[in-house]
Specification:
single chain, 421 residues, alpha/beta, Aspartate Aminotransferase, domain 1, Aspartate Aminotransferase, domain 2, 2 domains, seven-stranded mixed β-sheet, 15 strands, 37% helix, binds pyridoxal-5'-phosphate
Length: 421
Amino acid sequence: MSEPRLRAKELDAADGLAAQRAEFLLDEGGGGSGGEAVYLDGNSLGALPAAVPGRLEDVVRRQWGELRIRSWTEEGWWTAPERIGDRIAPLVGAAAGQIVVGDSTSVNVFKAVVGAVRLARSADTAAGAAGPARDEIMVDATTFPTDGYIAESAARMTGCTLRPVPPSGIPDALGDRTAAVLLNHVDYRTGRLHDLPALTAAVHAAGAYVVWDLCHSAGALPVGLDEHGVDLAVGCTYKYLNGGPGAPAYLYVRAELQDRFDSPLPGWNSHAEPFGMRPEYAPAPGALRGRVGTPDILSMLALEAALDVWDGGVTIEAVRAKSLALTDFFLECVEAYVPEGRVECLTPGPHGERGSQIALRCPDAGDVMKRLIERGVVGDFRHPDVLRFGFTPLYVGFADVERAARVLAEVLAEVLAEPGT
Ligand SMILES: Cc1ncc(COP(=O)(O)O)c(C=O)c1O
């Protein structure tokens, strides 16, 4: 047995989270060649938690089918957005009462960015600030595209200019015209983890408000929203929180800002008295202000069931420790199996700068990923030349990692050997 295979056995034997794998329905025989697939795409769509199908069956057949409208109250449908928000809260370092679940990440980015500009301007007005009105939104220049598109529209609507700046350049670019800064916690392409505490402090020192997109960090590493004084945050639940395809996203509004949070989408669900049916809008207190319209109950309750995997003592710190061990081991195996220079690692080496994925660049990445998937190693390809491998510590083991690197080396050799590739 090769050295990495032996090492994988040892690491799996010592893995305190190994038993969590049983909480997921991972395919048997879905690996193309007959084996179980190595699923390294949980940073795109998390695997299915075993509790979800039964819970959804109950929600559909009994709650919807039999109780029908009564379920809004009797089964807690109406309060699901804030109840499930409170279950996500500890995973991102937030006290209860600051997160509501609903809508997509894109929609929540819009609420948060416009809300942040309004917060910055209302703070200046309250302080009697003499300087120019804040009229600039800064966005992470390497952001996932949807955040950039929405920030651009939010800028037009609020009379701001949009300024794309790489995260490392943000402290120097901030000024007294900056109203809001939108940042991705982990870069979706490279897996780089940005310095949330330092960047948040820099934004605050400029009198601006920060919005963090946690899509690639929530459920994979500690975020510390309250500890670091983050103003607003958004994130999806279909990656490391395993909520399912199109599962609802969430919005965090720091408790001290909630009274001043002025949502650009004030729907009836965030009204102080939703069933008063009044023509005038009066916002509900607290995190509820982040709600808009009728929540998507089926997806929301699938997410609620998916969050059960965090019960029973699984900590985000343990998940982070295993995530780093998995990504370290993957890099070790790639070094052992893949000829030097064949791939370039885009993910930073230092642990403090790494999320839960490894991104490798190679010129034939699209073809390589297609072949990997055919052989049961499922990652994804990001245009134009990036192979992404996501590591979800709750269901990925070290033998998976070793196999993925070994098959990658085989595929890379095969692609090189074929004429014309
Ligand atoms: C950082 C980031 N933001 C936003 C999104 C997508 O947003 P939505 O859930 O609205 O499709 C993704 C999707 O992968 C993402 O990686």
